[in-house]
Design brief:
heterodimer, A: alpha+beta, 6-stranded antiparallel β-barrel, 2 helices, B: mainly alpha, 6 helices
Chain lengths: 286, 168
């Protein structure tokens, strides 16, 4: 009698197991094939991100409160310094306005177009991949804020606008970002001064450096440590001129026709909290 | 099967995944983390059997897929299979406070890695299949083994597993 009950339970377990496997298989197949349809993962991302936001903001609130006293002292001394700086900048601003007006007049006379300013949407990183296999950053802006797939993501770090990655999936109020250190990340790039072009690719780990491949071998003697790498904008989702990083080493194998450069990213991902999504016109790079 | 306890464990697993992706990673950026959800599944499947193991694995994997860059179903299928298989240890393997949690966490993490490679090679294009067996994975095996005794002790403390089939 007990044996029969055990057998029945085992049978039930197996049926449920097969059913769950079937559901998983359908999910996996649907995820890789249906590009335009509304994906279940997008709905899921929107739901789970609500909890991610609450955890991130709550933790941020507590740590912010604890640090607020020392922060206040620091802010006060910075405030005094800034007041002094403002006075100096006020006189500079007057000169700047005059130069700007003069520049505009000269541009008009030369028939130049005004610079295209790309709209930036600020966002906060609210989470990252819970596992150690994939690399994801989750931001608190989604389709309701005008975010669409493939928008470039940048961050300002030590005065530079550095590349962070690109949006790969959007939910209603949050999106997933593929960081530039991911193995599947590619960006058309070039050396800022020497103008050699190449392809930047992640290494799969935020702690290690990224690589710039297919750089012309003639640059072997000219490229040096510290050279800046930027996006080239060549038929790419990334506008040209965004900082990617600095050259840290050059490797040239005898049998290869190109160089591979090791790049240290401009953005320090271990300290990254705020990013900007570039709401660029797709025609911008064409 | 006690549905109320199953729902609670599913919520605990979902919370563990979300906390790991937000608060834990906010303070320990760039540090390899133990797979808390996996450790909870190991303990729960061993205590409650294959049915609860696979259902909780399914829920934990699905939550992870929603917030990860992995294809939907990737972590879900891995954790469902793990919950199912680990459920067979019920009434066969009994946990001592330290040694067995360490061993089973290491074995389960290796199995997870193997299933990730297998799932990646079946369902993903060759360029998109993740690299699993790296130095980071070795660290994760060690971390999971080290964390397992603490998580299991915590689970015992909350007595989430100690309900029989009549719900008592």
């Amino acid at each position: 009698m007990l044996d029969l009950r055990e057998k029945g339970r085992a049978k039930k377990n197996t049926i449920v197991f097969v059913l769950l496997l079937l559901i998983n298989t359908v999910l996996l197949i649907t995820d890789s094939r249906s590009k335009d349809a509304l994906k279940p993962s997008e709905i899921g991302l929107s739901i789970v991100s609500v909890f991610q936001k609450s955890f991130t903001y709550t933790a941020g609130f507590f740590s912010g409160t604890v640090n607020s006293i020392s922060e206040l002292k620091r802010v006060k001394s910075e405030y005094n310094k800034l007041i002094e700086k403002i006075a100096a900048y006020e006189s500079l601003e007057k000169n700047f306005r005059e130069i700007e007006r003069e520049n505009g007049e000269l541009k008009k006379q030369l028939g130049f177009m005004q610079n295209t300013e790309i709209e930036k949407i600020p966002a906060v990183i609210i989470g990252s991949d819970p596992g150690n296999i994939f690399n994801t950053l989750i931001i608190d802006k989604g389709t309701k804020d005008g975010i669409v797939k493939d928008m470039p993501v940048v961050a300002f770090y030590e005065g530079f606008q550095g590349l962070v990655g690109r949006v790969v999936e959007t939910g209603y109020s949050s999106s997933k970002v593929l960081p530039l250190y991911d193995k599947s990340f590619y960006a058309a790039s070039r050396l800022q001064n020497l103008r050699y072009e190449g392809l930047v690719n992640g290494s799969g780990n935020s702690k290690t450096r990224i690589f710039m491949s297919y750089v012309n071998k003639s640059g072997k003697e000219r490229i040096s440590y510290g050279d800046i790498v930027i996006t080239s904008g060549m038929k790419s989702v990334y506008p040209k001129g965004i900082y990617i990083g600095r050259v840290r080493s050059i490797s040239a194998r005898e049998y290869e026709t190109s160089l591979q450069l090791e790049i240290e990213p401009t953005v320090d991902f271990s300290r990254l909290e705020y990013v900007f999504i570039l709401k660029q016109d797709k025609k911008y790079n064409e | 099967m006690n549905k109320r306890k199953l729902i609670i464990i599913i919520l605990v697993l979902a919370a563990a995944t979300v906390i790991e992706s937000t608060v834990v990673r906010m303070y320990f950026k760039d540090i390899i983390m133990p797979d808390l959800a996996l450790l909870i599944i190991i303990f729960y499947a061993n205590s409650r059997g294959a049915m609860e193991g696979q259902l909780s694995g399914f829920a934990a994997g699905l939550t992870e897929d929603f917030i990860s860059l992995s294809p939907l179903g990737f972590n879900c299928i891995i954790k469902t299979v793990m919950g199912y298989l680990l459920g067979f240890t019920r009434n066969k393997v009994y946990f001592d406070p330290i040694l067995f949690p360490v061993v089973i966490a290491a074995v389960a993490t290796l199995l997870k890695g193997f299933l990730a490679v297998l799932t990646g090679s079946i369902f993903l294009e060759s360029g998109e299949a993740p690299l699993v067996f790296t130095s980071r994975f070795a660290v994760e095996v060690l971390l999971n083994s080290f964390t397992a005794p603490f998580i299991f002790a915590l689970m015992k403390l909350f007595k989430l597993y100690r309900i029989d089939d009549r719900g008592i």
